[in-house]
Amino acid sequence: MSAPLIQLREVCLGFGGYDIFQNIDLILTERERSCLVGRNGSGKSTLLKLIAGAIVPDAGTVAVQKGIKISLMEQDPDLSVFPTLGDFATSRLNSNQGYKIEAISTGLKLNLQQEVKLASGGEIRRAALAKIIAETPDLMLLDEPTNHLDVESIKWLETVLKNLTCGVVIISHDRAFLRSVSKSTLWLDRGLLRRNEKSFADFEDWRDKTWAEEDARNHKIRRRIKEESVWAVEGISARRKRNQGRLKALKKLKVKYDLQEKRQVNAKMSFQSGETSGRKILEAQGISKNIGGKQICSKFSVSISRGERIAMVGANGVGKTTLLNILFRDLAPDEGTIKRGTNWITATFEQNKGSLDLDASLQENLAGDPDIALPGRSDQILVKGVPRHVVGYLKEFLFDPSTLRAPVRSLSGGEKSRLILAKLMAKTSNLLLLDEPTNDLDIETLDLLQELLCEFDGTILLISHDRDFVERVATRVLFFEGNGRIIDFTGGYESYLNKFLDDKNSLDAAVKSRKPKNTMNLQENKKSAGLSFTEQHRLSEIPEEIERLELEIKKLEEFLSIDDLYQSDQKKFDKASSALAERKLKMDKIMEEWLLLEDKQIYGQLS
């Protein structure tokens, strides 16, 4: 077992009289690959901040291995003091680490020269992700790292995380991503933290089994309370003094059951299609659009019929939202024709949540929407044409009545998404235009949204980078391949990927067969090219040093993994932790030296 990087014991934390954590225990070790899951508002982001040391618990202990570095990527980092994204991303890197940020920014499609004041929220989050990867801490805490990443960048990130040697804890709504990178699962539910030593792929079965066991226990408690209550009424009169203990036990049982926090129910969402649209929603023939020298589409034709669920998939900035505006709004193509159908009633989810007034309250955002406002009333809205009180309606979307007058900017990302969905679902619509609706939603809300979209009898155009969600919802996919090329594929996302990989493998095989056979073997010249005699000697020494350090690190980790070592002998724990940190630092320096010598050798061979 690896040495613990951090250990939480009986940690409690609360805000405003509400308990977020109740006596939670947690050990995180080197090479940790855990996903942290739970409902929106359960405290996942707060737990990461506590682990990072940004929040102090009300009770309990937090033991951190001496000398380790813990880094947190937050959902909304503050970059206001930095001129460019690159300045922020490299702000804590030394000269030997600077080269890393270039490769990372390429993988994340991040422009390091972008001014912070002009950067989008997605660009800022990608810069925060690039920074934390380049810093290579001992423990990396990632809060929704895949938001605003396209599929290509998400797959790049999966590869990076799998090859890191540090510990990683991840919050994400992206099922496919979590299945790929996690080895264990942390589940935060009603203040309690559970751990399962299996990846996220096992989570839903584990959760459902846990809930079933809880329901069985509660059923027994309710039956016991009922039986004891009958006894208290019918059988106590003759034995009143002798049975006071049994009465007290019944009272305690009732109190314990009543105080038990019940599971949060799912939001009561529902779309209503209203009037049926025409059979043909839209037909575009040979449309092209170029914006600022960037080709959005070229001679693209598409026909959309009532009831289709179409996903638009592609890299960030490739033009998905722009094409949606061309097809369904007032952005005209440069050439080609668009024939639109009849009886559209459109509801739109905007990626940037622009339909929300962040400074207004939740109630004002609902009552101020002209499509659902009830004239003369600020506390009621029209939900599918029927007057509803704002408090009761928002309860169905899991909002506490106490938050109704809070500004929307105080909400979490998931709560903002739920508020937009509440506005959309108050309207009747037969055409849904959804631009990244899944960002920040918890797994249970995603499940419900997926079911509702599959049951919706209108037409859906969906933009998303969530592979699992697209696979479950879409019956047809428009793949944006860049330079104006769009592939119209009937079938699911995975079917397209399988076809793409088959085609790519065939192409790779053809290219390989045409490679020249007499290529230069760099290994044959490895000993002499590019290095001085002293450098060659040093390069030959490094492998033995690395092997010795690895052995020492392994022994120290085994010693630090002894149960209750921290509690039984804190001096030995601290001494071993310092020794481990010292050797790891030495290992990092030797590895950097080795990489520099290897690079110099290879460049000398190529020159």
Folded structure, characterized:
With 607 residues, the protein is an alpha/beta fold. The protein folds into 3 domains: 4-205, P-loop containing nucleotide triphosphate hydrolases (Rossmann fold, 3-Layer(aba) Sandwich); 280-502, Rossmann fold, CATH 3.40.50; 522-606, Helix Hairpins. It is 42% helix and 22% strand. It has 18 helices and 20 strands. It has helices at 44-52, 85-89, 98-108, 121-135, 151-163, 175-181, 203-234, 244-259, 320-328, 362-367, 390-395, 413-425, 443-455, 467-473, 493-513, 533-560, 565-568, 570-606; strands spanning 4-15, 18-29, 33-37, 59-64, 70-73, 139-143, 167-171, 184-189, 192-196, 280-291, 294-305, 309-314, 335-340, 346-349, 380-383, 386-389, 431-435, 459-463, 476-482, 485-490. The strands form 5 sheets. Strands 5-6-7-3-8-9 form a 6-stranded mixed beta sheet, sandwiched between helices. Strands 14-17-18-12-19-20 form a 6-stranded mixed beta sheet, with helices on both faces. Strands 2-1-4 form a 3-stranded antiparallel beta sheet, with no helix packed on it. Helix 7 (203-234) packs antiparallel against helix 8. The two termini are 46 Å apart. The model is unreliable at 507-528 (pLDDT under 50).
